[in-house]
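Data availability (excerpt). The following record was deposited with the supplementary files.
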Amino acid sequence: MNILIGIVGLGLLVLIHEAGHFFTARAVGMSPRKFYIGFPPALVKTVRNGIEYGIGAIPLGGYVKLPGMHRAAPTDLDARLQRSLAASPQLAAPLERVKRALAAGDEAEARRALDELEAAGAPPGELADVRDALAPDAYWRQPVWKRVLVIFAGPGTNALFAVILFAALFMAGGGKATTTVDQVLPGSPAQHAGLHSGDRILSIDDKPVRPTEIPATISGSGGKPLHLVVVRGGKVVSIGPVRAHKESVVYRLGFVLKGQGLSPAPAAWQAVRLTGTVSWDIVKSLGSLVHHSGRKQISSPVGIVQGSATAVKQGFQTYLWVLGLISLSLALLNLLPLLPLDGGHIFFSILEAVRGRAVGREVYERVNAFGIALVLLLFFVGLSNDVGRIGGG
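Predicted structure:
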């Protein structure tokens, strides 16, 4: 069940990302062709105002299709029409006319040749992408500010979601910590030792502790036996000895302290501060990827889901904190100036504005191929790390 919650959470973040692209495109007058909850093929779909809305068979995330991300190229139809061309040789002549028109930059002739190609028996679906690239509302034709805004909206929405979620958690009790135990994790050393929710911690090893000192004292024990004194129902209760277990790089007893809820304005400010701090830490960590220690920190979706499932075990609020951090990480990683990531599209849009002319299609294809190779490499490194962690390596 915890794994399922982790998968659903990751899917929600992808859906939020795609919804950012979709609604921003609509707001600036662009017309997406498709918007799916989940990924195609469609289980249910309908068309309204020229947009196909659907529920995909793969129930994770979402999918948005923007028309004409790049100028149409003569080779765009080769792969799509390969089977149709083998079965219907009469498509060869109109296909060549389409390719010649695209090579010459004659869009009007290309549209007429596409009509001839369809009339000769080419499936309309195999021509849709080229028609979109020739359409007046194609993405590549839009002003630079529109293109940048629509693409930035995906990671921007993920970042905004993280800020809103953090603010809500600060308001719900994620503000200043207290010495009162909010929850004790099942199967933890604290539960076995007899710590209860609602206990107020007075001292650890006969030393009075403030809220901020409790985690540091437990982690600093290095797993040595600890004695806790708490107030429970007006009575002083001694707990222990109990040994903290090591989790990642810190020692924990397995309980969560209750926090004081903040009012909306301070909560929002703390959420923005936390977002800024975490963002800077993530950016700095990207520079360590060239080192072995940095590569060991990479995680694939498998590891993200596993980490989310672990957070669910520690309580719903802990899971929501982790979900916000994952959303922020997705936003920043998507802003890397590398195709096919959103940051790559933003970079090339700005580059074209500075140059005053479009970047050649072959450049896009080469950079895109390099980017896909790098993303796949990072995925497999992350997957290898995750398998090692799951296996106890």
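Summary of structural features: The longest strand covers residues 34-48.
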